[in-house]
Amino acid sequence: MRRARAGHPNIETQTTQKGTDMAELSSEAREILSKKAFASVATINEDGSPQVTTVWIDADDEHVIFNTAKGRLKTNNLTRDPRVSVAVPDPDNPYNQLKVQGSAEISDEGADEHIDSLAKKYMDKDTYPFRQPGEERVIVRIKPDKVGMGP
Q1: Is position 66 within any domain?
Q2: Total count of domains within the chain
Q3: What rounded mean pLDDT belongs to the chain?
Q4: Partners of 102 in beta bridges
Q5: Is the dihedral of CA 87, 37, 68, 15 positive or negative?
Q6: Can you give the pTM of this predicted structure?
Q7: pLDDT tens for each residue of 38-87
C-alpha cells in the first residue's frame, strides 16, 4: 500500500499488505542503492537499546543487502533478533533518503565475492583490502516490510 504521509505530501511510504510477503523497492529507491551511498543500519542490542553502524549498501531484486563478518555486534544482534532499520541518504541530495524497515536473513554463501564487488563500487579496488585473517564474511539480506522516501 502506497500513501503520502499526513502533512508531508512529498514523503511516500509503502508497507506490506495482508497476503503479501514484503514491500517493494521503488525505482527511486533502487537508484539510490546503486549509487556510492552509505547506509546507517540500526539493530537491537540484547538490552533493547539501539545499535547503529554505517555500512556499504547494495540490493538485489527484492532485498536491501549489506556485508559484514561473523562475530560483529550487528551480526550477533540480527541473529538474535532479525528486526532492522536502514537509512540511506541520496549522495546527490542528502535531504532525500531511503528508509527501510524489515527483517534480516544472514548467509555466508557468496559473501567473499560480494564484499569484493562492494570494494569495487566504493573504492575502485578489485578485492576488499581490509579482510582480516580468519574473518568469515556474511551477506545480510533485508526483506522490506516498510519502504519510505523523503527527508
Answers
A1: yes
A2: 1
A3: 89
A4: 84, 144
A5: positive
A6: 0.85
A7: 999 999 999 999 999 999 999 998 999 999 999 999 999 999 999 999 99
Q: How far is CA 143 from the centre of its chain?
A: 9
Domain membership of residue 142 (yes or no) is yes
DSSP state of 76: H
Angle (CA) 59-127-132 rounded to 5° is: 100
In a domain, 10, yes or no: no
Report the amino acid identity of residue 62.
Answer: E
Q: Which domain holds residue 69?
A: 21-150
Grid look-up 578489485 returns 126
pLDDT in tens, 81-104: 999 999 999 999 999 999 999 999
Mapping DSSP onto H, E and C, the string for 98-137 reads EEEEEEEEEECCCHHHHHHHHHHHHHCCCCCCCCCCCCCE
CATH number at residue 81: 2.30.110.10
